[in-house]
Specification:
α3 (82-100) packs antiparallel against α5 (150-162), α4 runs antiparallel to α6 (165-178) and α4 packs across α7 (183-198). By secondary structure, the protein is an all-alpha fold. It has two domains: 1-55; 58-247, Type II deoxyuridine triphosphatase (all-alpha NTP pyrophosphatase fold), CATH 1.10.4010.10. It has ten helices and no strands.
Length: 253
């Protein structure tokens, strides 16, 4: 019972209603304010990420990430003799020659450009590893595009055999420019894919592609949409394979 026996229940409820409405209105206003704050934060985030990206060289990120991947697969990679890397470079150049087509009697003149880009990037990985192990600065060079030819491959082999890594590096960048692709970006994707394929979850079939993609060139094209930083690129590759956060190798450079 209430102390106000002369007041009907309907009157009491009617009197309470404005009070409840006020509380509900305040709660709605608070929710809208919180939602607005979240929206404003999200709107600011791309700018903040852009500023971070502008201050961090993509080349620096790629090099740091390659160092991370190298350490993951071979803790002694820095102690290896440079000649071991040079042998790898020579073999990769030979592969590129084979992809380009050296058999004059063959009727197949078509080059698989995507496979060629992957081979060139694998050569690039050896070069970057030598720079990293020797603690040399890796710089983005201004280069002119170089048309593919047997003479160009001979020049590359000559630089590799002499250990002239700087000139070989420049030629690799020139070929990448001729083929119109970002070699450091493709390298970052290939390094991430390599890590994914070493995970037990991938080997056992628990981590799989969301949809079929033939190679890392196509994966790079897929993962570069709405890209703000190389960190996002690496995460996009991991997302593509549904890799759990705790198994990801992320460089917060």
């Amino acid at each position: 019972m209430t102390g106000y026996t002369g007041i009907s229940r309907e009157t009491i409820l009617r009197k309470r209603t404005p009070h409840k409405r006020d509380k509900r209105d305040k709660r709605d206003k608070r929710d809208k304010r919180e939602e607005r704050n979240v929206t404003e934060k999200r709107n600011r985030e791309p700018k903040e990420k852009k500023e971070r990206r502008d201050t961090i060289s993509p080349l620096k990120y790629m090099a740091s990430f390659q160092k991370t991947i190298n350490n993951e697969f071979d803790e002694q990679w820095k102690d290896r003799d440079t000649n071991e890397y040079i042998i790898g470079m020579v073999m990769k150049i030979s592969t590129l020659i084979d992809l380009y087509g050296w058999k004059w009697w063959s009727t197949d003149d078509d080059i698989n450009i995507k496979t060629f880009k992957i081979g060139l990037t694998e050569l690039y990985q050896f070069i970057i590893s030598v720079y990293l192990k020797d603690n040399k600065n890796i710089v983005e060079l201004e280069v002119r595009p170089e048309t593919l030819s047997i003479d160009l491959f001979k020049e590359m082999l000559g630089y590799a055999l002499k250990g002239d890594i700087d000139k070989l590096y420049k030629l690799v960048l020139s070929i990448a420019k001729e083929l119109k692709f970002n070699i450091s970006m493709l390298n970052t994707v290939m390094l991430t894919s390599r890590h994914v394929m070493s995970l037990s979850g991938y080997i056992r079939g628990r981590y799989t592609q969301h949809r079929y993609i033939e190679n890392d060139v196509e994966l790079t094209e897929d993962c570069c949409k709405n890209l703000l930083s190389y960190n996002d690129l690496v995460n996009n590759v991991y997302d593509f394979y549904s890799i759990p956060t705790e198994e990801r190798l992320i460089n917060n450079v």
